[in-house]
Amino acid sequence: MTSEDGLPLPQRYWAIAVVALGVTLAVLDSAIANVTLPTIARNLDASPADSV
């Protein structure tokens, strides 16, 4: 007697795609924040420590 674990194959691919998209967006969001943080701090006359 065999039984499958987890989701059926089509739903499994959608789940993998959604998780991969979420990780990609999280990395992109942190990269954007790290790139723009010095510019925002300079425009607001804040020290680097205050901007973090």
Give a verbal description of the structure.
There is one protein chain. With about 50 residues, the protein is mainly α. It has a domain at about 15-50. About 75% of the residues lie in helices and about 0% in strands. The protein has helices at about 10-45, 50.
Can you tag this structure with a few keywords?
0% strand; mainly alpha; 2 helices; 52 residues
Distance between the termini: 57 Å
DSSP strand content: under 5%
* Helix and strand pattern: HH
Low-confidence stretches: none
Classification by helices and strands:
mainly alpha
Q: How many separate helices?
A: 2
- Provide the gyration radius in Å: 20 Å
Compile the SSE list and pairings.
Layout: H1 9-43, H2 48-51
In short:
With 52 residues, the protein is mainly α.
